[in-house]
Amino acid sequence: MNQTDVTMDTMEANKCPFRIFVNQSGYYPDGKKTAVMNFPCESFEIIDRKGICRYKGTAVRFGYDKNAGDTVYLADFSDFSKKGTYRVVALDEKSAEFRIAESVYDEVFHDISKAFYYLRCGCGLDEKYAGVYRHEKCHTSSALLYDDTKKELDVSGGWHDAGDYGRYVTAGSCAAAHLLYAYKMFPSVFEEKQLNIPESNLPDLLAECRYELEWLMKMQREDGGVYHKVTTMRHAPFVMPEDDRDPLYLFAVSSMATADCGAVCALASGIYEPYDKEFSKQLKITAEKSCGWLDHHPEFIGFQNPDDCNTGEYGEADDASNRFWIYAEMYALTGDKKYHDSMLKTLGKEFSFTALGYAEMGGLGALAYLLCRHETDSVLKEQFAERFHREAKRLKETADNCGYGCAMEEADFTWGSNMTLMAHGMVFAISDYLEKGSTYRNYVTAQLDYLLGVNPTGYSYVTGTGEFCCNYPHLRPAHADGIDECIPGMVSGGPNRHPCDPDAERLIPKGTPPMKCYADHVGCYSLNEITIYWNSPVVFVLGYLYCKD
Asked: What residues are labeled active site?
């Protein structure tokens, strides 16, 4: 598709045809099933594809939902478990189609996991694996050091970060960590999931992560410092990746990138050791070198774009959570007391121990310590676990006060709100994992329900999933490939109560409720971009929901 094809007329035609909102992927037979309606209704029916009523239920008034701007009615049909394909109908309204089946998440799980393959950089995508979304090799030239353009380095590989073709260490480390923890905590799920990618000597999720890890190791200098990013100087136009031929630049080392790269390599070293001892050793060496550099540079070394560069900055205000994460991972890997001591020294700083996004890594560090097989401080471990349990309880209260079951406050609807949503799903899942229970399983499911259609826009925010899904994300290859249907499995950033790009400002009226500040439009990068660390928490959440261990 071409970006100019998405006109205002297209936007009008692409408005949601439904006022009954369902998870368009579907529901487990024995799971909680709730549809949401934004009009007064006393009863509802479930009909099959032939229009035959298979279930009748009573709708319940929830009340006014401020973030949605709706008075909400709930249709709970959890006790209807007959497998099949259905719609919810009430009065003259109907929902999108959905399934009830044990395999209901199979396709979306595959697509969201496979999305990372479509974002590979430095190689071509073969038709055997990419189908119609194949393309030629891209970004294989050496990169120039921004501060010393006489030096060139091979930093090919890794994943394109988002709608652009940049590659960023902190963002990539975060995404890879979500995937690796999904594998570490729910291994049986991922040993069975096949993604149809070229590698075959590892479980497919680990093979895909390895592609990113190999690039991350290339970004490390000999002294252990890690370059913050490699991009062109300006964002590319909407061209295919192989047609983006501007010079690549390596930008300055930052302490955040150094810590995050080392942390995810330490995490990966333990996971890959049974499969490839030499690769595991390389990962450990990278992590050790990062620690050495950080020990010699205790000061915060941030990152800001030079004036002549407009690609992603990924700046942070400090590196406390990043340092906590790497030292926790290194202790979990090695059991060496020096890393435990270094970790303890970071605890005097202010940061969240449940945050799981690229800018706040404290939750990953806490998770590393909680899953550590070496001797740990029992009091500290209990404190980290209690942080997750306390946060899960807080999020539960938020979800209970939302007509759409969404564990999001008004302030959470910012750029990439769907990442926040799914990170909250991760917190619920982690709390259950630590308790070896299922207290929050329905709340994890509810966050996924919201992502896949139980929201006031009616969109499934995953390309290719559902009867009414986003299809015009801010993603260059999706709009340069000439194909009407977007690459499947891309998670849109979602509603942003502060739309801040020209198209979004034009399309979203002032005063629009936060949950409705969305448009499926290529130009709306503050609403509809994709990013690797928006996909990765969904993979984790689905791993939790699949796991029967």
From this structure: 164, 474, 520, 529
